[in-house]
Amino acid sequence: MLKKNGLVVLSDEIYSQLTFEENYKSISNFYPEGTIVSTGLSKWCGAGGWRLGFFAIPNQLKDLKNGLKTLCSESFTSVSAPIQYAAVEAYTGDYSTYLKTVKKILSFTGNYVYKNLKSNTINVTKPEGGFYLFPEFTNTKFSSSSEMCKDILNKTGVALLPGSDFGLDNNKMLARLSFTDFNGASFLKNTLGSKKLDDADLKKHAPNIVDGVSALKEWSNSL
Ligand SMILES: Cc1ncc(COP(=O)(O)O)c(C=O)c1O
After folding, report:
1. What is the CATH number of domain 96-221?
2. Are the C-beta atoms of 219 and 152 separated by less than 8 Å?
3. 221 CA distance to ligand 1 middle (Å)
């Protein structure tokens, strides 16, 4: 369809390296001549705020590429020097062991949250990568997702972003939940090698996740 109509696809693949089952396939495999892939280092490096992103643009779209280059050089100038040095390291070093361990932690943590949250009144999809879930609370009395998130924050201390912040219907009780509230350095240090994670590891290295999930569940049950 895209090919037939000659549409240009902008595919934001910044989370693709955090796919748990290594089965990620970019749309550029199927439509290389019309796909622009955007990505960056902040997600897979666990370096939020270290903003270095790039586009991979096919030769067939070189006019667009030249236009973009002009636009970017006039509006962003350049990435700061420390981030450029970090990027050289990130893209030239071998971080396969680090990435494997990060995915093991995120997969285990995400699945823990999923399993413990999913219920008759909370719809949530099993995570396949990255570090977010998007639960829907189906038995609420709120008139908007932002009102619901305020109530959750006040009563449980858990901060979620309302679905309306992502352009979703404000009447749908959706929220974005990030499951990264833990000390990554110590969790990583204790997870290297072939060690399988269990719930006790999560309690030890990510107590806020365990407490947050049970507080959310309790909040939902009390409605
Ligand atoms: C889907 C998506 N694309 C791109 C970005 C941009 O990442 P950064 O500004 O950290 O490079 C983000 C960051 O939150 C994101 O969630």
Report:
1. 3.90.1150.10
2. yes
3. 33
Helices (H), the chain: 62-75, 81-92, 96-117, 145-156, 184-189, 199-205, 207-221
Structure tokens at 3: 């090919």
State which of 37, 39, 43 you would mutate to test the pocket of ligand 1, scoring each by most atoms of that ligand within 8 A of its C-beta: 43
| pLDDT tens readout for residues 153-187 | 999 999 999 999 999 999 999 999 999 999 999 99
**Is 116 in contact with 179 (CB distance < 8 Å)?**
no
Of 2.60.40.10, 3.40.640.10, 3.40.50.670, 3.30.365.10, the CATH number of 9-92 is: 3.40.640.10
